[in-house]
Design a protein that fits this description.
By secondary structure, this protein is α/β, with parallel strands linked by helices. The protein is built from 22 helices and 16 strands. The termini are far apart.
Length: about 500
């Protein structure tokens, strides 16, 4: 069966998976969703014997039906290889009675590697399938992790250029160094004077500018996205939730059909949406627990049915979640509206014009798969310190948001189902925040002394991604205001 995709804002027109990957964003500004969520075509017992790569093929072939077996397996083989520092790709670490799905063993030590290792291969394959002659220009806004993972994935990939925008002073030192030292003749990095939402809105505005698209086409370019709005990012993320369940089964931690809970620290909503897709493919997931930091726009949404971005933007020690416009939430809103593109469009228009929208009672009733919580800065620091002191396990600030939210959820709900926490980044990526949470005296050290000390206390080797930026040359120094992003893109492409 050929699975087609449609926009969340227009139910009429359908495209193939490869067309959706190439475009990134639909012409009407909507996000691509499959016309239906396919079911797994293997049993859980069959899954538990599969490697990560085999699981990836089993899941992704259901969504990317216009790719041949050879094309898809080739993309998977190129993505999930020695770039990852463990054969398992996404290992499960059991800490006391909770399971941490470590999604940070790739080239840039964050969960974005799980999808951005394969997206360049999906994209270039899609371009060939659709006879694209233009050079593809990847435009990406990042709150810290997507940027480096996308840059690493697309560096020197033939037929592509990549331009990443990040909020100046809004990412960790390691995150910034990873981006501004990036090699590759086709890579550009720009610091914007604003927050992540400014960067994300600017990129969306460029995508929606029809005149600019025409101008770019005449110059031999076309835009695509590596952000989680691209369905080519979302589909690979479904894989690791299927894999995690299979590994629990293989390790005899659960029995076949036993429900587990999944906790995801989330800002842009893509990672937890992937878990929602996994559940609807047939993985026995009970609650999807959405964990927010002090920017708790998603917590408030699940509590009240009102999405309201009109609030103070708070910079936290979990910067990849410092987001007020969760772009992937649109896909969920569309689905809980009964795939009503008109209703979804009305809500997204209200968000753009007034900064707020409210779900109907019917839509709110369709959110029963989810629970939500948030963790304050103090709770995040306590979680890191307490877990380390009790178990020796060191987690990053984003994972600590999820772990803190999970502890509160468990106490309040009495839900004792086995639980997987998505561990989204290595503690090395946020070493200062992690180390000072363990002991405030560590704040006196410089960045790389901290990293060396973290290696000692965690008994985990410093990842190559960190070692290679220690003395790396700064290659990208461009900055701009949010209203100059389009102009900046044009000037980069003219170089």
């Amino acid at each position: 069966m050929n699975l087609l995709y449609k926009s969340t804002r227009n139910a009429e027109k359908t495209v193939t998976a490869s067309e959706a990957i190439l475009k990134g964003l639909a012409d009407d500004g909507g996000l691509y969703v499959p016309v239906s969520i396919p079911k797994l075509d293997v049993t859980l017992d069959e899954l538990k014997e599969m490697s990560y790569q085999e699981t990836a093929y089993t899941v992704m072939k259901q969504f990317l039906t216009d790719f041949t077996e050879e094309e898809l397996k080739n993309c998977i083989a190129k993505a999930y290889d020695s770039k990852f520092d463990t054969e398992e790709i996404a290992p499960l670490a059991k800490v006391e009675d909770t399971y941490y799905l470590e999604l940070f063993h790739g080239a840039t030590i964050a969960f974005k590697d799980m999808a951005l290792s394969i997206l360049p291969h999906l994209l270039t394959t899609s371009a060939k399938k659709n006879n694209v002659k233009n050079e593809i220009v990847i435009l990406t806004a990042t709150s810290g992790d997507t940027g480096k993972a996308a840059l690493a994935g697309f560096a020197d990939v033939e037929g592509t250029k990549i331009i990443v925008f990040y909020p100046k002073n809004g990412v960790s030192k390691v995150q910034e160094l990873q981006m501004v030292t990036q090699k590759g003749a086709n890579t550009s990095v720009v610091a914007i004077h604003g927050n992540f939402d400014c960067a994300q809105s600017g990129v969306k505005a460029i995508f929606e500018n029809k005149e600019l698209a025409k101008e770019m086409d005449e110059a031999g370019y076309q835009f695509s996205s590596a952000n989680s709005i691209n369905i080519g990012r979302l589909v690979p993320q479904i894989v690791y939730y299927v894999y995690a369940y299979a590994k629990l089964l293989q390790n005899e931690e659960i029995t076949a059909g036993e429900e587990i809970n999944v906790v995801v620290p989330t800002g842009n909503f893509g990672n937890i949406l992937a878990a929602y897709f996994a559940k609807h493919m047939g993985v026995p997931i009970g609650k999807l627990i959405c964990a927010s930091n002090d920017n708790k726009v998603l917590f408030d949404f699940f509590e009240t049915g009102v999405y309201d971005r009109n609030r103070e933007f708070i910079l936290t020690i979990s910067p990849s979640m410092d987001i007020l416009i969760s772009s992937n939430l649109e896909r969920l809103v569309y689905m809980i509206a009964g795939c009503d593109a008109k209703k979804n469009s009305e809500l997204m228009k209200a968000l753009k014009e007034k900064g707020v929208y409210e779900l109907s009672d019917d839509m709110k009733a369709n959110l029963s798969d989810f629970a939500a919580g948030y963790a304050t800065e103090a709770e995040v620091k306590n979680q890191i310190a307490n877990t380390y002191k009790k178990t020796g396990y060191v987690m990053d600030t984003h994972t600590a948001v999820a772990a803190s939210v999970y502890e509160k959820y468990r106490q309040e709900s009495g839900d004792e189902r086995k639980t997987v926490i998505a561990s989204t980044a290595s503690p090395y990526k946020f070493s200062r925040s992690v180390m000072t949470a363990i002991d405030a005296n560590y704040d006196m050290m410089d960045e790389f002394d901290l990293i060396d000390t973290l290696e000692v206390i965690s008994n985990v080797d410093i990842p190559n991604a960190v070692e290679e930026i220690r003395d790396a040359k700064i290659r990208h120094t461009l900055e701009c205001d949010p209203d100059k992003m389009e102009e900046t893109v044009k000037s980069i492409l003219k170089r």
